[in-house]
Structures are given as C-alpha cells and as structure tokens.
Amino acid sequence: MNYKVSVVVLTKNRPQYLKLCLDSIVKQKYNNLECLVIDSNSDKNTLDIIESYYSKIPLQIFHVGDCTIGAARQAGFKHSSGDIIAYIDSDVELPHEHWIEHMLKPFKYSHIVGVQTLAKYKVTDHPMLKRVHSSFEYKNQTINKINYEPVGFSHILIKKMVIADVNGFKDINFREDTDLTLRIMNRGYSFTYLPDEKCYHYHVNGYQSFLIKKIRNKIQGAFCLLRGIK
After folding, report:
1. Confidence at residue 60, expressed as pLDDT on a 0 to 100 scale
2. What fold is seen in the domain 5-226?
3. For the whole prediction, is pTM greater than 0.85?
4. All structural domains of the chain with their residue ranges
C-alpha cells in the first residue's frame, strides 16, 4: 500500500543537527510524503535553514511558541495529512535513503500500528554518546502489552488513527511519548522493532550535556510521578 507519510520534526534551534536531519529526509527515495516542522521560538538562523528547504521537499512550518513537547507533538499530529506519521527529532539523522521505505514494510501486518528503531553511533562520536547508545537494546521484536518495553518517539513511524484512538499526547514535557505508546499497547495494539534501521541521534555531545540531560530528566520525571504518569 502506498501510504502517505507525514514526517514531523520538532525543533528549537540546534541548527547544525537540524540541517543533518532535513538533509537525510530530503534524500529519502519514498516520494509520497510531506514534512512538517513544529517550531518552538527558534532564532532567525534556524528559521532561515528551514526555509531553505522549501524548494527541496513539500514542507510547512508551524510555530507553536513555548509549549511542552507533548503539545508540540500533538500539533504535528493535528496538522499532518498522512496515514502514517514519522516522528523524527531534529537531532536525528536518518541512516540511508531507503529508511522510510524499510520502516513501512511491517505495516502490511494488520496488528502492527507502529515501527520503532533505536539509535547507533559513528566512530567519530563523543565517547559519552557511544555509551548512551550502547546501554539499551529491546529484548523482543514485537512490543505490546505482554512484551512491554518503553517505546519513544525520536525516530518512529506510527499510524495516525491510533494516536486519535487514545486521544493524543498529554500536555507534558517528559514521557509524553512513552505515555502515549503505553496507552496504545493497553488497547491491544502492537509495535515492532527493526534493529537494522537504527538512526544517528545526537542528543548529547559531551559529558556536560549528558549531565544536564540527566538532571533535567530527573526533575521532569518527578513531575510525572506527581501527576500519576508512568
């Protein structure tokens, strides 16, 4: 089936990684797609980079201001017109030009509503980034209520209808993705994991950024616990 794919990229500055991300999306051989950039008050340099891609790919920018990550992801869902949404974080580089095609293949099975992969690193990446990307691997190819593991949204394809089926993302800044996928699995749906399609994810670039990320996640995690979000 020739699904229409809506590629949703959330960004707030980090222009050097955003360019890598958008370049890897432009290179995709799958041609039935649109790209939506959900922007949270980026600076002019970042906006100029985004606008330079208008002639390369069907692209729209939606400015959401200072909102939570959950609200930004929900905006991507709201404005998308595809059957499948590919959520790609702005610091993610797709590994090859056939990535979307490969990630779409499992949708031929009716019980699969989402296709997930993890991150890998390049030999030139910082040791801390290599450590982060070596610390987790899924135990099962099928992830569901029985074989539950957390499924995030850094680089995932998911059927739009299942997001609607669980009333979308919560307006939160942490675990907005794993909360959504848990609710989807609790409805009886399954995700699949493709280990051969791992992406490059530049979410930390050294010890300082790793420490800042850990502290931020601890704080946001505490807020989630107070609100009863697993």
Report:
1. 96
2. Spore Coat Polysaccharide Biosynthesis Protein SpsA; Chain A (3.90.550)
3. yes
4. 5-226
